[in-house]
Specification:
The chain has about 350 residues and is mainly alpha-helical. The chain has helices at about 5-25, 35-65, 65-70, 75-95, 105-110, 120-130, 140-185, 210-220, 230-245, 245-250, 260-270, 275-290, 295-325, 330-340, 350-355. The protein has 15 helices and no strands. Helix 4 runs parallel beside helix 7, helix 5 runs parallel beside helix 13 (about 295-325) and helix 7 runs parallel beside helix 15 (about 350-355). One of its GO terms (cellular component) is endoplasmic reticulum membrane.
Length: about 350
Amino acid sequence: MGFVDLLVVASIPVAKVLLVAIVGLFLALERIDLLGENARHHLNKIVFYVLSPSLIVANLAKTVTFQSFLTLWFMPINILITFLIGAILGWMLVKVTRPPKHLKGLIIGACSAGNMGNLPIILVPAMCKEKGSPFGATDVCETYALSYASLSMAIGAVYLWSFVYNVVRISAEEVARDKEAINYSSINIEESNQEPLLPCSEDHLVSLPVKIHQCIRTFLEKANLKAVFAPSTIAAILGFTIGMIPPIQKLMIGNDAPLHVVTDSAFIIGEAAIPARTIILGANLLKGLKGTSIQLRVILGIVVTRYVILPLLGIFIVKGALLVGLVPSEDKLFVFILLIQYAMPPAMNIVEIVSREANVIK
């Protein structure tokens, strides 16, 4: 297969995403005003609480079994590596660019959390349908693509709400404390209330491993682990339960299953999550086109982190996993999924996280 053919196969799914995003941008224009700030906020809530959980539970229940999960065990590790490396690079970017304090958590989150769910579910099955796809027969490719992308979405949601959410939340609380200190400057502020985001010693004599240890320890002390049980996480648990336990699977999966109407209905509702999120993404881009107060060097740093450094590191990590036999080399589609997990744009769920922690954007 030539380079041009591969470029066409890879570009068409991306073009589809861009076209849907343009629709969202158009609907957000002031003269149209169908997706203003309030409308986006409410649509985000519908996606967060209803559409995305339905998509996750239906896809996992239908495609992930106990046997298939055993062959995909490296994916959770791979996603964890992307989050950790992205967070470290984001922390370094914050140190170099010195952005306003209210943006620190958002920058680390944007560098750490990639869109592991929605985009692979759109892009990879679409690539399977294109003529000349390198992943074999269309129907087989599409089935496995849906399974891999669903698992990626579920695992990514767990990491997102256990780690990134807490990074943004801690940053928001820090900003709120600073505002309170300004408003009530006559009140003595305890030193413990002024600890920075992922507080690390500023003493240059302290070694980097010690600083990282301080960051991790303080993060665990401040983290709100209740957020791990977000609707998407609960949906992932339900999906795994249905798919991996044979009696429940026989009861709910397949045309002959007595309760197949439940999972079929969830799948119908969940299908709306992908276009809804993409439309929201396009609407949010309108503000960026009008100009932003974020420093250009910060934006460029996030772009370089997510589209240059992480993909290059991902190639070495996945190739290394192949060499030592952690990943089956014959499954090209699985290898491809592992690689693109390092090349995804920032997760769209960050919009929901930021809307929850309003102080981050004030």
